[in-house]
Amino acid sequence: MELTLTRPDDWHLHLRDGDLLAAVAPHSARHFGRAIVMPNLRPPVTTTGAAIAYRKSIMEVLPDDSDFNPLMTLYLTDTTSPNEIKLARKSEVVYAVKLYPAGATTNSQDGVTDLLGKCLPVLEEMAEQDMPLLVHGEVTDPDVDIFDREKVFIESVLRPLIQKLPQLKVVMEHITTADAVKFIESCNGGNVAATVTPQHLVLNRNSLFQGGLQPHNYCLPVLKREIHRQALVSAVTSGSKQYFLGTDSAPHERRRKECSCGCAGIYNSPVALSLYAKVFEEAGALDKLEAFTSFNGPDFYGLPRNTSKIKLKKEPWKVLERIPFPSGEIIPMFAGQMLDWKPSF
Ligand code: DOR
Ligand code: ZN
For residues 295 and 8, is the Cβ–Cβ distance under 8 A? Predict the structure, then answer.
């Protein structure tokens, strides 16, 4: 069996910098036409100038014949100015602004401390410029249980935000719960959408502890209960246009994952398409796969759909055990395991 799909895009990707960037960017460029590139570098990408420079460094590590198009984002801070949004829109390089609540995840220490209190003028300018806000949807209060942080964020931040600024385009990134699905559905199309990662569709929180602690399955938002995984599968395979592909592929050096205080992030770029295909196949919804991988994202962002195609062959293939690079190695999701759908180009 073989599936032909319009070339997919990845609407949520971490490419890093330095030799890690050089090691991972070609994997994404082979599978995807475009990617929304996250700005949580050190220092974060907070200005259009920095985004333009970062895009240039990405292009430099890609093969000469690559037509991969990185769509850049700005990292929102308490002091981002409305004028920066005007510059971003004019640049035709920056396509969105990312909200990290301060302290929520990797390199989020410069993120926002009080969204509506500190960023309202910027958000108004974004609505005006049709610049989407991409949201890491978790509260950071350490007294809130880590498994409830998404649900609490929806009620305390997201709902008030969209009530105040219904014209603002908002993508709730990497949703993980039935509560998020309910919220997205309650927004009923229009300006609110969500990305869903492969790991939140195929794993539940048991995978963190199966046979011992599994650092390579640790990401944020953390994996949830099986009922939540099932709600996500139903949502993406329903055919709703509000969901689209965003891998949240987030490579870390092996030694930063396998240590006493390991980083959050799963490197899934090499396996993402195979896993999405498996999820849709198992739900009997392969006919809905292409809209999720290739249509709903560009339609939401107001960009043209890709015109080239890729193929997925139903054929077993083995995931690499490790991906070496000059200063270490990366362990991909499902390292060394067999998967069923093989991308071919
Ligand atoms: O697991 C994660 N890793 N979640 C995030 O939100 C950030 C990402 C990273 O940059 O490593
Ligand atoms: Zn991310």
Answer: no
